[in-house]
């Protein structure tokens, strides 16, 4: 690993699930002198070595604000992402895509030498579910029907062009699987299940079964482990994409064992019909299009991150998912606007 003493790092989306772990990992590294955490709303939480600043990337004045904030930066870690409203993709497009482009362009204007961008397994085209997994050369055309995948994939094309125009900027793209930690559980429950589903209902003894769906194979990673990969990407002289996930891959049987229940074969069309009805009536925010995408995600090969970043997750996939379930049931959270904890609502 190549050390760069006294780095000044700016992190967008610093108050969310990944951001809170990344700023803490960076601030705790002796090679990082200063961390500036950007978010739409300034948090109350205090992290030693981190300064908080407010900026709305979807705002028309954000380019000028970013120019000022990036002026002395050695690296920008771009994590900001808006998952909702799923019924109004124009809103998420303005924030996620146009906001990201503003970050990329401000990075180049300010002469920042390193840009680490949070892509996703969701950027990948449908692929095989084999244990070995696909490497980072697998196509990144996403699942076009899902806004999340469509936006992540579009930004991959934007970065392709950006790297051609700015070869002096070291661009790193992180493509993790599903990221969980206990403190982000309340937020993730609200994002996918809605604010009115009580966390106490997510108890193993209340789940009669796990649906055994063809294609249901999840790769999970503890957010703190992902943060260490981001830290390594900032400090190591590497470029390009990196898959991130923990072992093992979780299928219906593994999920059922974790939850203390059984896996029962269910037609995907039945689950999609129920989810579609719930989404169209706004009972849940998770769209059926995202469900379609999840069943088509390829399994990832993370060898490149292991070799070039010298990174290994310290927790298994089961441990990461168990942390999430504990957090949901207890209403865990952090004192930031996105991660505020609640058992209900």
Task: Write structural notes for this entry.
There is one protein chain. The chain is of the alpha/beta class and 345 residues long. The protein has a domain at 7-180 and 220-245 and 300-314: Rossmann fold (3-Layer(aba) Sandwich). 37% of the residues lie in helices and 15% in strands. The protein is built from eleven helices and eleven strands. The chain has helices at residues 17-27, 62-70, 89-109, 147-165, 185-192, 223-235, 252-259, 268-280, 288-294, 303-308, 317-330, and strands spanning 7-12, 32-39, 50-54, 75-78, 114-118, 170-176, 178-180, 210-212, 220-222, 240-244, 263-265. It has a seven-stranded parallel sheet with strand order 3-2-1-4-5-6-10, sandwiched between helices. A two-stranded parallel ribbon has the order 7-9. α1 packs across α6 (223-235). The longest helix has 21 residues, at 89-109. It is globular, with a radius of gyration of 19 Å. The N and C termini lie far apart (44 Å). The mean pLDDT is 92.
Draw up the topology in text.
Layout: E1 7-12, H1 17-27, E2 32-39, E3 50-54, H2 62-70, E4 75-78, H3 89-109, E5 114-118, H4 147-165, E6 170-176, E7 178-180, H5 185-192, E8 210-212, E9 220-222, H6 223-235, E10 240-244, H7 252-259, E11 263-265, H8 268-280, H9 288-294, H10 303-308, H11 317-330
Helix pairs in contact: 1-6, 2-3, 3-4
Low-confidence stretches: none
Instruction: Please identify which CATH superfamily of the domain at 7-180 and 220-245 and 300-314 we are dealing with.
Output: NAD(P)-binding Rossmann-like Domain
Radius of gyration: 19 Å
Q: List how many beta strands DSSP finds.
A: 11
């Amino acid at each position: 690993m190549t050390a760069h003493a006294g780095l000044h790092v700016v992190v967008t989306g610093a108050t969310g699930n990944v951001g809170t772990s990344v700023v803490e990992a960076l601030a705790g590294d002796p090679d990082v002198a200063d961390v500036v955490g950007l978010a739409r709303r300034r948090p109350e939480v205090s992290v030693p070595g981190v300064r908080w600043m407010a900026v709305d990337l979807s705002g028309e004045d954000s380019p000028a604000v970013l120019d000022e904030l990036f002026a002395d930066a050695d690296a920008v870690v771009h994590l900001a992402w808006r998952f909702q409203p799923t019924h109004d993709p124009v809103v998420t497009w303005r924030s996620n895509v146009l906001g990201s482009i503003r970050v990329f362009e401000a990075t180049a204007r300010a002469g920042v030498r390193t840009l680490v961008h949070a892509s996703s397994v969701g950027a990948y085209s449908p692929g095989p579910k084999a244990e070995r997994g696909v490497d980072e050369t697998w196509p990144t055309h996403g699942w076009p029907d899902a806004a999340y995948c469509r936006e992540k994939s579009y930004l991959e094309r934007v970065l392709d062009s950006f790297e051609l125009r700015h070869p002096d900027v070291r661009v790193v793209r992180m493509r993790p699987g599903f990221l969980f930690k206990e403190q982000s559980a309340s937020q993730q429950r609200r994002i996918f299940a809605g604010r009115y589903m009580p966390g106490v209902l997510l108890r193993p003894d209340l789940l009669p079964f796990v649906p055994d769906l063809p294609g249901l194979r999840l790769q999970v990673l503890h957010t703190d482990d992902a943060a260490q990969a981001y830290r390594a990407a900032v400090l190591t002289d590497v470029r390009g994409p990196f898959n991130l996930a923990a072992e093992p891959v979780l299928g219906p049987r593994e999920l059922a064992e974790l939850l203390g229940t059984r896996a029962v074969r269910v037609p995907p069309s039945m689950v999609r019909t129920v989810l579609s009805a719930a989404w169209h009536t706004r009972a849940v925010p998770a769209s059926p299009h995202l469900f379609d995408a999840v069943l088509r995600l390829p399994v990832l090969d993370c060898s490149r991150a292991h070799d070039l970043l010298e990174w290994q997750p310290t927790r298994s996939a089961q441990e990461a998912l168990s942390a999430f379930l504990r957090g949901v049931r207890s209403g865990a959270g952090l004192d930031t606007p996105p991660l505020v904890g609640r058992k209900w609502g």
